[in-house]
Amino acid sequence: MNAPALLPPLAPRDTKGWLVAPALLFIVALFIYPFAYGLVLSFQPMNGGGVWANYVAFFTDTSMWPTILVTLKLAVPATLLNVGVSIPVAFALRRNSPYQKLVTTLLVIPVTLGTVLIADGMLTYFGPNGWFPQALQGLHLYTDEVRLTHNYWGVLISLIVSGFPFAFLLTLSYVTGIDPTLASAAATLGASPWQQFRRIYLPLLVPGLTMAACLSFVQAFSVFPSAVLLGAPAGPTRVMSIAAAEAAFENYDYALASAIAMVMGFVQLLVVAGMLGARRFFYSGPVTGGKG
Amino acid sequence: MTTDRHATPQWSASASQAPAVAGEDEGKQAGSVESAGHAGQAGRNQGAQPGNAVKQRTPLPERVWRVLVWGAMVFFLVNVLLLIATVAVNSVATRWFGTLLPQGFTLHWYAQAWSDFQLASVLWVTVEVVGAVVILSVLLGVPAAYALARVQFPGKRFAVLVFLLPLMVPPVTYGIPMATVMYKVGLAGTLPGVILANLVPALPFVILVMTPFIEQIDPNLEAAARIFGANTFRYFRYVLLPLLVPGMLAAGLLVLVRTIGMFELTFFTAGPGTQTLVVALYYAVFSTGVRAPQSIDAMAMIYMAITLIWVLIALQFVSPTQIVSRVKEQKR
């Protein structure tokens, strides 16, 4: 599928274009081909049956299809919360200041450490004898036993710990990309900070926020290590990736695993397409001043 | 003379006073712009809805809002830092159960973790994988980025789309079909398999970081070098390469930081002898109870130290946003 090879040379072309070939071949061989292979494989069930047997199995098995809902129940609140909270915080930190540098630097830490380490730390920190429950009980904010690990809340918190900095740093890069003189002009005309945000920043931010929401959602939807380590992988947090990994690496049913991965990709595509479609109702012009 | 003497202090006094006054004026002006804004606002509102007194008290809700936003931020950061501190404290604790601090401190968990989890071989695998991924992704990615930045060729949009896809699709989704293919051809569980799997997100990342970087290098430099008789190799060696080094360094560091923490793809494709540090950590946490939690946390500290050292080095050359967002230039 190398497009340059398909077309006959019409004009003397720059041969330097071929420099792209090795990288393109590599991605085609290790990304496009496996994806196509998985798609074909998902229609060839291991245990026989019709072409759609794997998909039928997925949507009728009660240990399979509810995973979609479980994953959505985790990913949607996490995305809304992460992007929703990052807007006002990014807005408050939009000016280049030492605070901005400090906060961004600190927020890079949980992102780069990754979900496995965060899960390990959370098991101790939010565990029954960790500092967080100790503090809650010490301050008499909550007297019952605090259960924040090995259930839904543990996974949701981990999605926030690793997802919020991601959403924030993306949102901040969009907010700082907006020319502040636009807001100053509005302020001169008597707009309050809220009006500046509502009428100037928000419409300009919508494309960027949609992008941030899409990336955050896709990331939250494919939650894997923390759902195993911090959740209850057999029940309330049995997400799609667990079902797929189980099919592939425990039952060695690669056809079914590929089918689950395809369904997963399809749901992500559906939600992302929905978000991108909704964004077209908003303004999407230049975000700089007149001279842009 | 006397008048002169008399005049000078007067002049200097007034001169020294003037800036202060001007400064005050500026302050007043800045304040009055804002307050005028509020007043105009309030006035208009009163005109529209007489008796709406709440609008006049905008500063208070604003202040509450600001405290709320900062409070949320500080709460989040404090919890993340304490979360990391928990790991650090537990890794040097003798016994820690339900108290604020452990009963005693020891360093022997680090020695324990080193032998328990065969960290020497795990670390060596990590170095091999990360090193190979960084070198290969830069070697393959920079020429591709050069072509994308400089040359118009048929199928360019298709090529860009192919490079964007591995960054948009999450690793879990494409990792399972990829692992399936690798098991079929016998690459799974081998070191080359793990390296190839990690290259899939790393290579497009290098390309997308490097393309705008190469675009801003002046194309006239090539013409100038040619005029002075440089062949392609000499142009590349003495003109292009020195200019590319800063971008390659940044791209390489970003790939390095991301590959150390890349869990899913390595997890799907690694065998028992080809686990990287983060996968070994996952298995250790997964089977808590087999080993002492302090030993696991000691390993987590080693992982954290390695990651953070490289993050600190990377932050000298790149902005925090670049580590997170795949492409900074995707803004527009």
Measured as a percent range, the helix fraction of chain A is 55-70%
Tally of contiguous helical segments of chain B: 13
Total count of strands of chain A: 0
Supply the CATH superfamily name of the largest domain in chain B.
Answer: MetI-like
The CATH architecture name of the largest domain in chain B reads Orthogonal Bundle
Which shape of chain B, going by the Cα principal axes? globular
Spatial separation of the terminal alpha carbons of chain B: 69 Å
Form type of chain A: globular
> Strand portion of chain A, in percent?
under 5%
Structural class of chain A: mainly alpha
CATH class of the largest domain in chain B equals: Mainly Alpha
Question: Quick one: which chains have the greatest interface?
Answer: A-B, 102 and 104 residues
Number of domains of chain B: 2
CATH architectural group of chain A = Orthogonal Bundle
Number of strands of chain B: 0
Order of helices and strands of chain A: HHHHHHHHHHHH
The CATH superfamily of chain A turns out to be: MetI-like
N- to C-terminal separation of chain A?
Answer: 39 Å
User: How many domain modules of chain A?
Assistant: 1
Helix amount of chain B: over 70%
What is the CATH topology of chain A? MetI-like fold
Commentary on this structure:
The complex is a heterodimer of chains A (292) and B (332). Chain A has one domain (65-279): MetI-like (MetI-like fold, Orthogonal Bundle). In chain A, 68% of the residues lie in helices and 0% in strands. Chain A has helices spanning 3-6, 21-41, 53-60, 66-92, 98-125, 131-138, 152-176, 180-188, 193-221, 225-229, 240-249, 254-279. Chain A starts with a helix and ends in a 13-residue tail after the last helix. The mean pLDDT of chain A is 85. The termini of chain B are far apart. In chain B, helix 3 crosses helix 12 (293-315) and helix 5 (156-168) packs across helix 7. Chains A and B meet through helix 1, helix 2, helix 4, helix 5 and helix 6 of A and helix 1, helix 2, helix 4, helix 5 and helix 6 of B.
